[in-house]
Amino acid sequence: MSWLRGFTAAILLPLTLVAASDDRSGERERMVREQLEARDIRDGATLRAMAQVPRHLFVPEPLRHRAYEDTPLPIGHGQTISQPYIVAFMTAAARLRPQSKVLEIGTGSGYQAAVLAQIAEQVYSIEIIPALAQRGHQALQASGAGHVQVRTGDGYDGWADAAPFDVIVVTAAAEAIPPPLVAQLAEDGRMLIPVGPRFGAQNLVLVTKRGGRVRTQTLLPVRFVPLVRGGS
Amino acid sequence: MQRRATTEMPGVSERRLRLALGLLSAAITAHQLVVMQVLGYVHWHHFAYMVVAVALLGFGAAGTVLTLWRAALLPRASTLLPWLVWGMGAAMVLGLSLSQQAAVAFDLHLLFVEPRQWLALGLLYSWLLPAFFLGGLATSLVLTSRAREAGRYYFANLVGAGAGGVVGVLAVEWVAPERSFSVVVVVALAALACLLPEVRARGRVGLAVLGLLTAAVAIRPIPLRPSQFKPIALALDLPGAQVVTARSSAQGWLQVVEAPGLRPSPPLSLNFLGTLPVVPAVFINGYAYGTLPGRAEWADPSWLDWTPSAVGWAAGERARVLLLEPGPGGAAAHARAKGAQEVVVAEPHRALVDLMTAGRDQPVSEWALPGVRVERTTGRHYLRQAEGSFDLVVFPSTGLIGGAGLTATTEQFLLTKEAFREAWERLAPGGALVVSAPLEFPVRPALRVLATLVEAAEEAGVANVRSHLLAVRSWSSVAYLLHRDPIDAATVAAVRVFADDRSFDPLLLPDLQPEERDAYNAWPDPGFFTAVDALLGPGRVALYRDYAFRLRPATDGRPWFGQFLRWDRLGVLRDGIEHGRLPFLELGTVMVALTFVQLAVLAVVLILLPVRRLRGVGSSAGSGSTVLYFAGLGAGFMLVEIALMIRLHAWLGSPLLSAAVVLTGLLIFAGLGSQWSERWVAVPQRRVAIVGGCILAIALGALLVSLGSRGTIGVPTTLQALVALLVMAPVGFALGQAFPVGLRDLERTAPERVPWAWAINGCVSVATPAGAMLLALEWGTGALFALAGLAYALAALGALRDATRAAPG
Questions:
Q1: ipTM surpasses cut 0.85
Q2: Cβ separation of B440 and A201 shorter than 8 Å?
Q3: Residue B587 and residue B229: Cα distance in Å, rounded?
Q4: Which of A78, A179, A217 sits opposite B272 (nearest CB)?
Q5: pTM beyond 0.95
């Protein structure tokens, strides 16, 4: 079966890692090297963003010592901060450019938005749980990504005032893709969404729109974490 | 009242003691059912096997303690007994309360993410264990003190335990999970009340006060804390969310939640441009079970037209439609909107049916619309007794009723080969049945549904299944449509239009071109299409053999549709799946295996612990026979019990009714057998004969269950339950004799080992439920009956060894 096949060895890209001003940049560099490059994440912009954003600022205080581990971590309200690999995979699959306009559904910890904001100038993020929206916004500001616009509201409706979006990233698993999000996706736009029951195996699905016609591509199975080896 | 004092329990009347024993046994059984209900709500599974195992572990530990400290405990039995009974009631309340404290709450979802969850799991066991330990110690004190009359006391024990099954069912049927434990505590305190007159004045007052205090605490509800990841918890976390209706039933706790962000979430086509309405959501045991569309949506639940399963409406007239366990959500209204004149909804959940069908004059839901008829029964049960034929039979999505992962160990009789056969036979000329499945990755449910459909159709006499079967695939699911008649060109054309309008890809069509299969929805694994073709061709058997997961159809004898893990393919999975991720795919099965290992280790420790102490007291000759005999009985009884529960679930259509009939029937008839066994002289030769009778009775029981379930198709459930209860008679009656006769024989030859025999029996029974689940998942219920016979054969061997040793010369 093809999903069981091995994957080619990672190709190490030359990187100019911008050293962060905190004392955990070494852990981030190791995270990038061992968790991302080793799993075939090759997009330079994504790797640089992952090396720059201080992930530990988005993790609840009691778990900060584990912030750079190869695992998702609970952040309360039944949500998690995704495993670094998943954040990087979604960011790379979004094929962001600096001028991309990005909508994130499910601010959660704020970490994914911060990574997106390292690459794209316009990032909008919606969170339905007020407590998470507030905490995520604070973490974004503390990490230097204060230009991300955060709104408390129902992600189902998208952000009609700012539409259309070149990229939409849905971070919370959904059993259906909300029609308004498809409508707010720009021509040639890309939407990434983990689809499936919240605690069943989910598929990370890429939705593209071209010529008004919508197509999907299933990328890899996830459930907090990727379930199958490789997957890019 | 005749008072009969004994040296071990002076001053305690036999009648009072037997009544107290019966009540405390009832409380223990009922408590197990209540704990299952609570766990089912808080977590993702009721963990029945784990609860039964923890209960038996408590019993085994009690037997071990009594063996180790027999000399100290037995003379004080009459003093200790009422305190133990009170302690059991108090531990029931305290254990459940502690399990719901945030600081120590166990969360199954984080078990393989957060190491501390292993500690929380251990703590969960320890919160639940004391009640069963104290109850077990009280029971074994009575049975050991009265070992010479073991039959009569064992009778009270078993009849009480059987009645407890009924009490437990009534408690979970009518009382919310946060209060149902109160009913059990009342039964436990009634046992205490029976014993109070026998207690000295000062102690009596103290116990009465403690009993009243416990009752006062038990009256208050214990707020249950569902896992933060459970759908009900996520829904209630939404701003403005509130529970607007809550109803108890044996099929689960129904709650209706309203919140601004709750909408239907079907696997919609991305071409759907309409709006999904904000509607109340229905949860059963904390699982999302559907939504309650309002009056405005009944007229036109148009979004359902944009899901893969709507392919059933793509071609042909569908005047009479059967919806099997659809849950609320608009399917019935959709069928009416598509022109169905009669829609039958088969739904087993009593509270949900009551909610949905109230107010016939002024319909409160789509199920109360004219032309819609609701049958309150399981889909499977309805298929067997339905009259007439249907143009369309719609099965629930496997995503709705449980795919893989956590629900792997939940029996699902609606997705077996036999169920598809029965649905096929209900189809009118031109009719079809539709089944949809999520596209998980690696693909499992979608392929297993196909395998089941193909084999069912072949068994129904269809020579070329390809000409009867079509399928469409969206970005997240597959819908299969199996036609009674060969598919014609008009239907093929209509399905192509249906798929193209929705950007779905045809997966199976008689004239399908390969490039059509992923024109809109690219799938990363071309092996999926190869597997689909293999299932419809000569490569099916090879695919079953080589695929990394189990694809062979589920059957009534092995009804675990969601169980895909193949232990013989673990090596292949290890190579393909990210390190440590297997539990995320097959958590249910992995949990059963882990439970089995944990409890088996504990059982062995508890059996071996008293051995050194026993060596110092009396002869060690015959210890091996004691182990063989009582371990064989413990394992055999549990294997039969689990096998019967599974088989009766299929027969009666309800897991809880099945558990109640088996617990009640088996235990009551075992009690009668125990009473009857008083007439036998307790010698090894007699034990051999009794155990031989047990083996025959197990074979007879298995046969009677098959005959009974076939012979009562179409009769009311109550009558079926009565027949099932009678089927329990020969098995229970035979099995009930072996243990007390063995105890009496041991009391005669090696009295110091009586509590140890208890411990062995309890400890082996601890590991058996989880082990039986693993065996059943792998080989089905037939294997459980066979292994039960084997376990009794080992017991017979133990008795035979005793007979040989006892023979003169």
A1: no
A2: yes
A3: 15
A4: A179
A5: no
